[in-house]
Amino acid sequence: MSTGSEFSKKVMHLNILMGSILMKRKLLPFAIAAAVAVPGVALADATIYGKLNVSLRNVDTGEDTWELESHASRLGFKGDAELDYGLTAIYQLEYEISPDQEEAGDSKDVFKQRDIFVGLKGGFGTLKVGNMDTPLKKAQGKVDLFSDVVDMNILLDGENRQDNAIRYTSPKFADMFTIDTMIEVGDGAERDTNGDDTDDEVRDGISEGASIAVTAGDSKYKKQPFYAALAYENDMTENKGISIIRAVAGYKINDITLGALYQTSEGELESNKDYDDDGFLLSAAYSMDKLTFKGQFISSDQSVDTKGPIDGEGGEMFTLGVDYKLGKKTKTYVYYGDGENDAKDELTVYGLGLEHKF
């Protein structure tokens, strides 16, 4: 671990490094290699991690389209430092990258921000500030078996990352229960010469939105064979004006893993339209040696346009897939998904992918 006196220097070096990379993106391989090679500078005490996940897929929404698609491939840097009073400083800078194209995600940037935070950890729990997944999103655990490929975000609300966020996660009680909370802090507002707020619509309060989740068990099914969560979120930026309640359950018995999620959403949109939705997800997986067979069904009954490529008033999505482990951190996979909304708009997608973690 780094000492407390070195911690701020490490974070500063990381930020300088990322800024240099963003300005000169063609130097990325050399910048990372140099940072790792030079002792005491930039990444010497940071852990470099990431994932490359790309599939060749066919997408049919009325017209057949073949494409290479990166599924939330990422590059991250994280570390910690021991402090006084039994505290540990923690930091993480994680960015989405797109090995299939020049830009990341839908933007024109080489890097697209994912979870980026700095915080403190101790006997009281963990406190973070930055840009992070909400507790409601994290509450789904691992029940979405096709996350980042044909995931629940295609129909259900709440799979968001929140900026200007303060997040507190409690220690685990009785080796089972955890409380995870987040508030969204305002981003400031323009003011006139008298110091008065010039825009009442700007979110500039101490707590503009909130998200909380209570979890039990182990979402990875290692310490316990079960997982459960109950989460609530209200008025976060990505779902402004909407409240969401989510319940999740998962259970693993031998080689079979079962998962279920139910959520209800309601509120008033900025267009002054009432919003209401009841949705659920059911998933099942069976592992056999290096093979894992997966199936998943998602249903949504939204009263306004749904998110993602299926537009309309509610919809359903059924997905099947098979993973094959090539090594501890590498797998190849195939998948097929078929969906339709109430307006009879259809989505069919199938593909072959490769994922490697490092």
How many strands, which pairing sense, and closed or not: the largest β-sheet?
16 strands, antiparallel, barrel
Which value, in Å, is the CA radius of gyration? 22 Å
Number of helices: 3
- Shape from CA axes? globular
Distance between the termini: 20 Å
Question: Low-confidence segments, ≥5 residues, pLDDT <50?
Answer: 21-27, 33-42, 306-312
Q: Level of helix content?
A: under 10%
Output mean pLDDT. Answer: 84
> Numbering strands along the chain, what is their spatial order in the largest sheet?
2-4-5-6-7-8-9-10-11-12-13-14-15-16-17-18
Instruction: Report the count of strand segments.
Output: 18
* Percent of residues in β-strands: over 45%
Q: What's the SSE pattern? A: EHHEEEEEEHEEEEEEEEEEE
Coarse structural class:
mainly beta
Q: Can you characterise this structure?
A:
- With 358 residues, this protein is mainly beta.
- It is built from three helices and 18 strands.
- It has helices spanning 4-23, 28-37, 135-138; strands at residues 2-3, 47-60, 64-70, 74-82, 88-96, 112-122, 125-133, 161-169, 177-184, 209-217, 226-234, 242-253, 256-268, 274-288, 291-300, 315-325, 330-341, 346-357.
- It has a 16-stranded antiparallel beta barrel.
- It is globular and about 55 Å long.
- The model is unreliable at 21-27, 33-42 and 306-312 (pLDDT under 50).
- It is found in: Cell outer membrane.
- This is Porin.
- Homotrimer.
- One of its GO terms (biological process) is monoatomic ion transmembrane transport.
